[in-house]
Amino acid sequence: MAEKKAKKAPEKAAKTGSYGASDITVLEGLEAVRRRPGMYIGTTGTAGLHHLVWEVFDNSRDEAMGDFANDVEVALLPDNRIRVADNGRGIPVEIHPKTKVSTLETVMTMLHAGGKFGGEGYKVSGGLHGVGVSVVNALSTRLRAEVHRDGGQYIQEYKNGGKPVGKTKKIGTSKLHGTIITFESDPSIFPDRELNWDTIVSHMRQQAYLVKGLRISILDLRKVEKVDDEEVFYLRDLPVGASGTKGLDAPSVTFYFEGGLRSLVSFQNHHLETIHKTVFYVEKEQDGVHVEVALQYVDDITSRISAFANNIYNAEGGTHITGFKTALTRTLNSHNGNGSAKGGSSSGGKESDSFTGDDALEGLTAVVSVKLREIQFEGQTKGKLGSVEARGAVETVFGEAFSTFLEEHPEEARAIFGKITLAMKARKAAKAAKDSIMRKGALDGMTLPGKLADCQTKDASESELFIVEGDSAGGTAKMGRDRRIQAVLPLRGKILNIERARIDKMLASEQIRNLVVALGTAIGDIFDVTKLRYHKIIIATDADVDGAHIRTLLLTLFFRHFRPVVDGGFLYIAQPPLFKVRKGKEIHYAYSDDERIKLVGKDVPLEAPTLDEVDAGVPTSDEGRSVGKVAKVSVQRYKGLGEMNSEELWETTMDPARRILLQVSIEDAQEADMVFDMLMGTDVPARKSFIQSHAKEATLDI
Q1: Averaged over 437-442, what is the pLDDT?
Q2: Among 110, 126, 315, 578, which residue carries the largest CB count within 10 Å?
Q3: Residue 469 annotated as catalytic
């Protein structure tokens, strides 16, 4: 044995001997950002593109948080350029003692260089790693930094991924103060550079609520023929926003809120029926953590909690939300048990009648905001707060203040306890119904619904579930599918609108119950996305009004009760063709009117002549053709999946090599939540107003 080991040792050494100093790659400056942009901005898709704007804006907003600025202007310019201007102190321009170049150049070209690591530059900021604006510079083809400071006007430009074009130079005197950053995102990094106006406006509105006294103006100047890079409206002593765009036919909006988080909660609830009128609010510093919380209950079954740390939106929550939820449930149970609020349980605090966290959250709209000097996020995109001290601070500040609120506002307390007690009773009823359904299914041996044609593979990563409309389309899909990896579940008609339905009512619906069992994740408090049986869930409905309605009902179900399925990228929408075009012996499929016109022109009518007439060579007459000529072109309009045979459905909609799928994603969860509430809820006037406002944007199937 020893001899064999001795023989193998040189062989092992030979395998590692080629690994030396020359194999270690050292990325200089900002090259690491360009090589791995996802590490710094999360994605190079549209979310990452907008993240560039947030990074630059955050610097201006941090100036306002320190009371150094009160005006920020965000302008979308022609040629995919973005300009962010503020009236803060201006980035320092003197030579930096360590880098030996201007401080402006240091900030713009070096990672982890900024005023947010210590000292007195910023007491509170959203910046953590000091990579924000330098990352934007690295991912831009060009960037222009202009600083007004100490009586001077300074500029420096950068090109091709953050490379300085000359040194920081003074170009004149100035009585103003502030920073102006204009940049153009790099097309080699971002395949789609079209910024979404609504996304920008929504984000800036949110930020204006979070910083009292800050005015934020957004201008869309992309269609303006000429925009001077140096022309910033507030710097010209003109009012920002609509007044600043005087003479320009361009969209603009200005936000300014004195109410802060109270105003934000009221805005989020403006289309919902509130349980109590007074919005709870507390603002206090605890152990070096500045805590702000606002909340209000509404007549709904979902909760809406927005989390912020140093004004950065934390989509995944974090320690501050943990502290908030703990204090909320404990405070409500404490008041419910000691009988200080009428309308609560009269059980004297029995454990079986205690409120759970889910009970306390039902119908709650809340905003939790903390500000810390030293802050820790999980990841550069700052989606989750990790600072441990935030939990205790929020728990203490909110718990004490909310307890006082319940005592001092008996009417509000009574309404809140009535709402939560109803949620507790509904939870128990739902659990009983759910347990009964699960037991019945197990006893009957119905581990999977009878209508489900399951796939052969048990590997979820390659399994697909097609949710199709009706038994006719279901039968066609079952015949045309790849049985090894594709399962089919037909739906009978329209499913229940679950927007305001509790789980017991949902599970009483056979359609929804079949879908829940097929997915394998269960639902409610026992939901487990790791047990998902298919990693592609494909909604395949007809291309008509009824099909669109069924698709909307399914999307509402997934958004409200299977959110991790959506967030995980497992939900898709099939794109079946609208037309079958036959040109002689060739068959083509068109997915839109534009594609159809490209194939046959505008003059060929739909479904005339028939395919049989073409085969028989029947002389026809239609627009653009003479009588007596044999028509070689026919266009058939599909109204539903059931009109296709199994081969056509496979070729166009189910074949992984040729089909088109749209992946469902949620770029702005809060906005999506409001839209679902409006369109699927009970507020008819709000829905009518929304439809009237957006009627011209609709694609009508007439």
Answers
A1: 51
A2: 126
A3: yes
Same domain, 285 and 207: no
Interior angle at CA 138, CA 135 and CA 141, nearest 5:
135
Q: Domain check: are 294 and 185 in the same one?
A: no
Q: How far apart are the first and last CA of the chain?
A: 83
Structural domain of 200: 32-255
Question: Could you tell me if 155 and 291 lie in one domain?
Answer: no
- The span from the CA of 550 to the CA of 490, in Å, is 12
On whether residue 207 sits in a domain, the answer given is yes
DSSP bridge partners of 216: 72, 255
Residues 320 and 221 in one domain: no
Residue 67 is among the residues annotated as catalytic for this protein: no
Q: Which of 353, 542, 668, 677 is catalytic?
A: 542
Q: Known catalytic residue: 542?
A: yes
Give the DSSP H or E segment for 477: helix 470-480
Which of the following is catalytic: 378, 544, 586, 647?
544
- Average of pLDDT values for 674-694? 59
CATH of the domain at 130: 3.30.565.10
Q: Is 702 exposed, middle or buried (0-12, 13-18, 19+ CB in 10 A)?
A: exposed
Pair 273, 251 in one domain: no
At 352-383, the pLDDT tens digits run 678 999 999 999 999 999 999 888 888 666 78
d(C-alpha 599, C-alpha 608), whole Å: 16
Cα separation, 200 vs 667, in Å, equals: 12
d(CA 85, CA 215) in angstroms, rounded, equals 12
Task: Give the three-class secondary structure for 682.
Answer: coil
Whether residue 656 has pLDDT greater than 90: yes
Number of structural domains found in the chain = 3
Cα atoms in the Cβ-side hemisphere of radius 13 Å centred on 178: 22
Considering the candidates 157, 400, 546, 622, report the single residue annotated as catalytic: 546
**Same domain flag for 191 and 106:** yes
Tokens, residue 536:
């592609």
Helix segments in 76-131, DSSP class H: 103-109
Question: What stretches of 492-535 adopt beta strand conformation (E)?
Answer: none
544 labelled catalytic? yes
Q: Which of 220, 395, 469, 677 is catalytic?
A: 469
* pLDDT per position as a tens digit, 564-575: 999 899 999 999
Q: Final residue of a domain: which of 428, 447, 471? A: 428
DSSP string, 267-330: HHTTTS-BS-SSPEEEEEEETTEEEEEEEEEBSSSS-EEEEEETTEE-TT-BHHHHHHHHHHHH
Q: Is the same domain home to 278 and 182?
A: no
Q: How far apart are CA 524 and CA 508, in angstroms?
A: 14
- 207 and 82 part of one domain: yes
Average pLDDT over residues 215-235: 69
Picking from 108, 109, 128, the residue whose alpha carbon sits closest to that of residue 180 is 108
Q: Is residue 415 part of a domain?
A: yes
Picking from 194, 228, 255, the residue at the C-terminal end of a domain is 255
